[in-house]
Amino acid sequence: MKNSWSNKFDEYRKKSNYDSMTAEEEKMAYDKARKALDSFKAKYSRNLTEDYYRIRKGC
Amino acid sequence: MPEPLPFWRANFNSSDLVIMDTSFVMDLLELNESKSRAQECADTLHSIGINKALAAFTFLVPLEMYNAIFQNKAKEAIKSEYNSIEYNQKALKRFSKDNPEEYRKIVEESYRIAQEAMATLKLYPQVYDQALGMPGQALVDASMTLQSKYLFPGTNDPTHLAIAVSENATYFATTDRDYLVVNEPNLHILVDDKLYKKYYNK
Q1: Of B54, B120, B157, the CB nearest to A37
Q2: Tell me, what's the pLDDT at A2?
Q3: B-chain residues within 8 Å CB-CB of A36?
Q4: Nearest to B55 by CA among B6, B4, B7, B9
Q5: Do residue A16 and residue B129 have CB atoms under 8 angstroms apart?
Q6: Quick one: which of B160, B195, B202 has its CA closest to B20?
Q7: What separation in angstroms does the CA of B42 have from each of A34, A35, A37?
Q8: pLDDT of residue A58
Q9: What is the pLDDT of residue B33?
């Protein structure tokens, strides 16, 4: 189904060159993001499930 | 009623908008218990990207994440300070009064981690860089309508969903079982494999 994109999403796609990235640019962007994700997980990985549910479900 | 789909069954394309629930984001960041679910969420985000769809999050995601991190840290600090005291609002108030500096550190550290989490997420080009949802009467009304319809246990659940609906999202990615009951036109609920198999036995 075609989403009726609001302008903000179109603007983001343009601003970030999301649709026009070369394969190399795409690889660099994803490598950078994955590296940051791995670094975040290495520093902060912990089990917050119980706290998350308590907050989210108000119990 | 259309069934939710497991993440791997989604066929994303460039006109799709995928709203990531807090549970999805926290699993992606390994702030919840399952490493296999973290990998599923990472694979899903990757699939969104290679198919040029967009992923986005509501304004509640950083707030709920901050709260979960804060409560986890505060609970540990209270246990350490008062030994066996139960964690509740009264204990939290007592701790903040007895240890204002430590309390401040917990707040600042939790905020910093939540900020770093969101900054990490936004490095992915397929993630829209602004939180979605404009708090106001329209959102309150839409949330309350969805709460009446689905009887969610949590008050934030219908708000995430109301934002997804108002943004014409095509997918809602979550690892929270409470969204399994959702049936909104043109919005597919995506869940992790374990949750899907548990409820649909496939």
Answers
A1: B120
A2: 45
A3: 119-120, 123
A4: B7
A5: yes
A6: B160
A7: 9, 12, 10
A8: 61
A9: 80
- Which residues of chain B fall short of a pLDDT of 50? none
Predicted TM-score (pTM) above 0.80: yes
CA distance B195 to B126: 25
Helices marked H in A1-59 — which ranges? 7-15, 23-44, 49-57
Token digits for B158? 């219908």
Q: What's the first-to-final CA gap in chain A, in angstroms?
A: 38
B149-to-B2, B102, B153, B182, B183 alpha-carbon distances in Å: 16, 43, 12, 9, 10
Sign of CA dihedral B190, B193, B194, B198: positive
More confident residue, A1 or B121: B121
Instruction: Please give the ipTM for the structure prediction.
Output: 0.89
Q: Which CATH superfamily groups domain B5-200?
A: 5'-nuclease (3.40.50.1010)
Distance CA B35, CA B18 (A): 22
Position A1 scores a pLDDT of 42
- For chain B, the domains span 5-200
Q: In chain B, what residues touch A58 (CB-CB under 8 Å)?
A: 153-155
Which residues, other chains included, contact B113 with Cβ-Cβ below 8 Å and sequence gap of 6+?
Answer: A44, B69
Nearest-Cα distance to chain A for B29, in Å, is 6
Q: Using an 8 Å CB-CB cutoff, list chain A residues near B22.
A: 52, 56
User: pLDDT value at position B202?
Assistant: 62
